[in-house]
Design goal:
Elements: H1 2-15, H2 27-30, H3 42-51, H4 69-82, H5 86-111, H6 115-127, H7 129-134, H8 140-158, H9 163-180, H10 185-202, H11 205-228, H12 233-243, H13 260-272, H14 275-278, H15 281-298, H16 304-325, H17 330-333, H18 338-347, H19 359-383, H20 402-423, H21 430-455, H22 460-467, H23 469-472, E1 476-479, H24 482-485, E2 492-493, H25 507-516, E3 522-528, E4 541-548, E5 552-559
Parallel strand pairs: 1-2, 1-3
Antiparallel strand pairs: 3-5, 4-5
């Protein structure tokens, strides 16, 4: 049986690399914008362009480089090894997801639950559709998941009594924020609160001192890393301000913070509505059921399991608190919580071995179970709504197939009934039914993944960029996403659509100047279905070609000014 498990996991790991250069699925289904991918690795791509002589004066650097120091070298190495293509860009993300799975396996073994549940949870993580998506496309979320899990692994495996693990914990917790993604602050805050609680509880100030030492060492490492790429803290501040304002800004406006109940509701829904739950409703139900059990475990006794339970509750609280003040595209960026959610459910497996005999506990847990099931169905409802996804303005609504929806809802309801039967001690094989329900949910996710990425794979964008190579090679390209358009084509990226350019004038003024002075050869617009053309009849631009895809089009313009 052991070799069967090894073959299963090895096959699922290799499957993550299958057809890695294909287009991203429809945004509303996978929540990945293919044009955004390279902007999470600006430093690596600009370094590649510099080495190949494809940089444009004034655009050799971007503000966003300070945010991708963590993957700069590995992505650059991958691009050199596999080429200036989607394989080169995406391989590091697949590797990060594999390391995450290995860390979770180690955590499960330390918690010491039944081996069959270890296998089930690992298989669940390897087949969850949403986690699979973000394991294959360049994004900071999968690296956040990896580093957050590494911090959890250090604490769960090595504890907090010895100096070295505590210093490492402080360093890694700060690293998730300072190097990987600022929105991971909840982890640093949660770990700090947990260590502070243990410092007060055990009256050992050294615990906080060692943890803080790790944080300070990480901050020093940030200063050194910024200096190595010719940047400083002021550049980081400028980049943070640029990403924290505007329509897609992360900070909630001060005037809106006064709407207390509205923000509390939004904070909770940000987590509840996250898409990895969308594809596995039984997992969401499991997390909700786990919350009261974690409270019981946290106050039960002072051991590793109770400490881990307390930590999970604190991290949930700090995530919700962070969402009150700042959040950004929560349906996809809350993916960073998946190790916390999975460990929380895993911790509660042992709870269902002993029958519940307390009548008050039976009634209260049953009421909470019904409420939790309602929240799961609410998650399903909003994620199936075209209105919910209407903000994208794409006119192209991607949705899960009907058969998947039926299985997703049915397994969630069935899981609720199994838990209910356990609470009231009905003579039902609860353990067997739970395993069957999880296996059905796993199988449904795998089939959906197979149909999407194997049967329904597409290469429209990749082929478009390949076809543009004779036109764009060594030519200066401007527009919305020049870093994307340089893949395969060998173009020279300049004047990005995002606020990452180091320019002192409005973007339109700079564009006009580049066109007049023949500093830009081509402009490419990404236009969503039904949207108006940004540069139609624009002075100096001549439409050369239009590439139509499933949900949007590329409009290629040539600089026609003499």
């Amino acid at each position: 049986m052991k070799w069967l498990y090894i073959l299963l996991f090895a096959g699922l790991v290799v499957f993550r690399f299958a057809y890695l250069d294909q287009d991203a699925p429809v945004y509303q289904l996978a929540n990945v914008s293919q044009e955004d991918e390279p902007y999470y690795s600006q430093g690596a791509l600009l370094k590649l362009c510099t080495n190949e002589g494809r940089t444009v004066k004034g655009f050799e650097k971007t503000k966003g480089e300070v945010f991708d120091i963590y993957n700069r070298q590995i992505t650059y190495f991958s691009l050199k090894l596999f080429g200036n293509n989607y394989w080169g860009l995406r391989v590091p993300d697949v590797l990060a997801s594999i390391l995450f799975i290995l860390l979770m396996y180690s955590i499960f073994k330390v918690i010491k639950a039944d081996n069959e549940f270890v296998v089930l949870f690992l298989t669940l993580l390897l087949t969850n559709f949403y986690l699979f998506v973000f394991s294959r496309y360049n994004n900071p979320q999968i690296f956040s998941v990896l580093v957050i899990t590494l911090a959890l692994w250090v604490l769960i495996k090595y504890g907090y009594q010895k100096p070295l693990p505590l210093i490492a914990l402080g360093f890694i917790s700060a690293y998730t924020v300072l190097f990987v993604y600022p929105m991971n602050f909840f982890l640093l805050a949660g770990m700090g609160i947990f260590i502070l609680v243990k410092t007060i509880e055990q009256k050992k100030i050294a615990l906080t001192l060692f943890f803080t030492t790790g944080v300070l060492i990480c901050f020093l490492a940030l200063l050194i890393s910024l200096h190595s790429i010719g940047r400083n803290l002021h550049d980081t501040y400028i980049a943070l301000v640029a990403s924290g304002t505007g329509e897609s800004g992360v900070l909630i406006k001060a005037t809106s913070l006064m709407s207390v109940w509205e923000n509390i509701y939004r904070s909770i829904i940000a987590v509840m509505g996250t898409a990895y739950f969308r594809f596995q409703l039984p997992l969401l139900l499991g997390v909700l059921i786990a919350i009261p059990i974690l409270f019981m475990k946290a106050g039960d006794k002072n051991d590793r399991e109770s400490d881990t339970s307390l930590l999970m509750l604190i991290l949930m609280a700090t995530q919700l608190a962070q969402n009150y003040f700042a959040y950004n595209y929560p349906f996809k960026k809350m993916l960073v919580d998946i190790p916390i959610a999975t460990i929380s459910v895993f911790l509660t497996v042992g709870y269902f071995k002993k029958p519940v005999t307390n009548r008050l506990q039976q009634i209260s847990m049953s009421i909470f179970l019904v409420f939790s099931l309602g929240l799961c169905l609410f998650n399903f409802k909003i994620n199936k709504s075209s209105t919910y996804w209407g903000y994208t303005g794409s006119g192209c609504f991607g949705s899960t197939p009907y058969w998947f929806d039926v299985i997703n809802v049915a397994t969630c309801v069935a899981f609720a009934l199994v838990v209910l039967s356990f609470l009231w001690s009905f003579n039902v094989k609860n353990r067997l039914f739970t395993i069957i329900i999880i296996m059905i949910s796993i199988l449904a996710n795998f089939i959906l993944t197979y149909e999407t990425f194997i049967v329904g794979r597409k290469y429209q964008i990749r082929d478009c960029l390949i076809n543009l190579e004779p036109i764009l090679h060594d030519k200066v390209v401007v527009g919305g996403f020049p870093l994307t358009y340089q893949f395969y084509s060998g173009g020279k990226p300049a004047l990005h659509g995002y606020n990452v350019n180091y320019i002192n004038q409005p973007q339109k003024v700079v564009l006009d100047s580049m066109l007049v002075n023949k500093q830009a050869d081509y402009l490419i617009d990404k236009v969503m279905l039904g949207a108006s053309l940004y540069h139609k009849d624009y002075p100096g631009l001549t439409l050369v070609k239009v590439f139509n895809f499933e949900c949007y089009s590329y409009y290629l313009y040539k600089n026609s000014l003499e």
